[in-house]
Design a protein that fits this description.
By secondary structure, the chain is an alpha/beta fold. Helix content is 27%, strand content 26%. The chain folds into two domains: 5-78 and 182-251 and 343-416, FAD/NAD(P)-binding domain (3-Layer(bba) Sandwich); 114-177 and 253-340, 2-Layer Sandwich (D-Amino Acid Oxidase, Chain A, domain 2), CATH 3.30.9.10.
Amino acid sequence: MRFSALKILTEGLTGNRGWGAHWRDPEPADGYDIIIIGGGGHGLSTAYYLAKEHGLKKIAVLEKGYIGSGNIGRNTTIVRANYFLPGNSEFYSHSLKLWEGLETDLNYNVMHSQRGQIGLFHSDGQRDAAIRRANSIRNQGDDAELLGVDQLRKMVPYLDYDQGRFPIYGGLLQRRAGTARHDAVAWGYARGADQRGVDLIQNCEVTGIEIKAGVVQGVQTSRGAIRAKKVGIVVAGRSSQVAAMAGMRLPIESHVLQAFVTEGLKPCIDHVISFGMGHFYISQSDKGGLVFGGDLDMYASYAARGNLPMVEHVAEAGMTLMPMIGKARMLRSWGGIMDMTPDGSPIIDKTHIEGLYLNAGWCYGGFKAVPASGNCFAHLMATGAAHSAAQGFRLDRFRTGRGLMDEEGTGAQHNLH
């Protein structure tokens, strides 16, 4: 089934009775050439690009719940390419370019909205850092603009510019940044992978990884053993637990990151806005809700739920930046499990076990990285060589100390990233 304006019109006039299932629900085969553990955005995009870009067959994605039930369905939907350090900057630049052609590529509306992101700064030091970041972004080939207070007042008049504690000095704007619909991204990649013969196997939890003489043989699952020549671990906050099945200890801590949404409002926030003096970011969804988030909950956890002190902390930051938010009623909150590395940057690499590959450690960058993560991981699994945009995401940098990327400038403390 291919989407088109004519198809939508026809179905609308005939009671929407002609839509079919977006993907099959197959039983697992005895064996595959490649198994991807994890049916989130990164796992689905990996399978899609393995089939589309590399023409590989006999691929399965194993998901312990339903497709899109993890972090891809519980995030704040931000898409951007305003990273500073070499290694990260070219990767997220690659991802943004893929985002810009994604709907055409997938023939699916992922509701990608390039509404622009504004990162505010509140001191001379932060302005200097923003100038350096803007120059780095533009040298990478992406867009970045410095905005003065007068320009910001016209664009975002609802901010509190005159507070004595955190006065707004200006902002860094990336116009090509924006948001996308997280669920639709998962559905689009799932549909595209299925159309190319990938088996998407839901309710199939991996319980063990079979290894013989240092070579991966397959996996044990809640639906039986499945053989595989190659296995990719793409499970976000569960990375350490799944890697432990192969006897690996990863340099990762798992933390909860909460996000929040208000009641639906008339359009009032046209951009994604980030607060420079507190980890707070906000945008408005197409349904009208204000979607916002802040810091990690600051304790290691595998529970996809948060705590009330962090709700208060994030609400305080929102009220400080834009007092108008206090008039909106918060409808709900949710939590995603973040796999945090010591340097705030991800891992896309082979492991010491032949045929076992790792995609993990996305910290705060997981959603915006979905297209490039899958594209680069598929390249690695298909060719055995790292993609040019992901050369720096080596696992051994944490053992050797070479190539560490301290993107957040907070050192090796996971919970401060």
